[in-house]
Amino acid sequence: MTNFSFNFNRATPAIPETGRSTTFTKRVVSDCVVAAGILALFGLIAWILPALNAPVGPNTVSTDPRNLPYYALRSVFRMAIALFFSLAFTFVYGLAAARSRRLGKVLIPLLDILQSVPILGFLSATVTIWLALFPGSMMGVEAASIFAIFTSQAWNMTFSFYRSLKSEPKELDEAARNLQLPRWQRFWVLDVPNSMIPLLWNMMMSVGGGWFFLTASEMISVNNRTYALPGIGSYVEAAAAEENPGKIGWAILTMVIVVLLIDVLVWKPLTAWAEKFRITQSESSEPKRSAVLTLIRQSHIDDFLGRFFRPVGELLNWVTRPLGRTGSKWDAKPGRRRAGDIVFDLIVGVLVIAGVAELMVAIAKTTGLGELGRAFGLGGLTFLRVALLTVVCSVIWVPLGVIIGMNPKISRLVQPLVQVLASFPANFIFPFAVMVFVAFGVDINWGSILLMALGTQWYILFNVIAGASAIPDDLIEMTRNFGITGWMKWKTLILPAVFGSWVTGGITAAGGAWNASIVSEIVSYGRHTLVARGLGSYIAEATAHAEGMKTLIGVAVMAIFVVAVNRLFWNPLQRLADRRFVVG
User: Is the pLDDT of residue 87 over 90?
Assistant: First the structure.
């Protein structure tokens, strides 16, 4: 028996005879529209693919606004591929970290490090590899760009999925163990459905993060060489170099249209569909709606996909049987488990110490250890900016996120606006910000905080919205019946319910802010370049001048700051959330 299903439909009552012809007409029309949409999608992909393997040409991008639709299509294509790989990474990495206690000790701190490594750090380390894999072809540059976008998307999705796995309702986990579900079946009937709502909101945020770093991923400048790809991010970079605000305005208008289309065609249908995974005993009185989802439900696409993938699901169930069943193994004896933990910790400790020693020797031989102290000092300045940003954004967006998440009417009205603001690449307006800073004499050391917030505040908002929208209607109804309102309702229901989501949002927002410091602490528009003192500008300048050891020092120091803050502050809060504020 397989649970590999693509059922978009809900149970519907029997159709009276008089309505059968109308229903049949609707289904035929829906089938035609859905089929036309699928054919159009494959046609666009077929149109784009030949350009991906073109030979490496001149590293310039046209700023003719007539190219913007094509550039936007290329950018969306890169984002979609990166999101697919991010989702696959999320499932594999998050499941390994949550299900293996020992692996979790390594994988979660490693995830802290990965989310702290700026996109320029990944690019400088991997672009040569991608170019070597596809010599003389734009495919290598495309692969480097997609990988860079992947590094801006995957980490917060993985944190969200890991958090959902660790906070699964106890009664559902116990049911899966009593039924001894095969691990693959448990993954599809419990793990993924339980994580679907927060994962979807974090996917939206991941796409927003990808847009934020689109310029850096499409206009790759490493080792004194620039590789430019046709895309809306590289278009904005080229228009800013020309000091042409009109062309930047056309790019902003194009981005708004793209974001709205993605919201209508992708996110609204998915969030409405995900309502079926809410843990509640009663259906919401104000269910989320989507015209696209209604169209899909009226068509036969789900039946077709179900028949097509059913053999695949059955094959996967058969192949994954050796992985065992949930609850089918006894826990190891305490003494043997402690001994295994000691051996595992010793091996990891030796590897970490050896790596740190090797790094220190390399630094001493090249730049000297004094450079490390300078990087830590600059890291302290960036840390203060990140801490202030996190506090202010939490105070502003937690109550607003709760209001949006708990009120479907407000959510329907506000979600498109939030999508536009969150998905819109904030660095597209950086040139205008530079003009304002120069005109009014704003110190970039303070202005950079605002620039960082433009791209990272949404992590907190989206996670809080996801947490608030997942509050069971039964609990909301209970507070209403008992007359619990005002601060008492916030203290006893709302804040405990969204606390874990806020922690996840805070972790990813802080990590995103460290990453955003790369493009926020050094901004330029034409002849004007503003540089703030901080670790982000340190790494950006080192990368631009091909100073590999300084780039490595900056990335290492940034990772140390992020891991230390997570270990000392965020992780205790996450354990508190898992211990006290889990539904069920």
Answer: yes
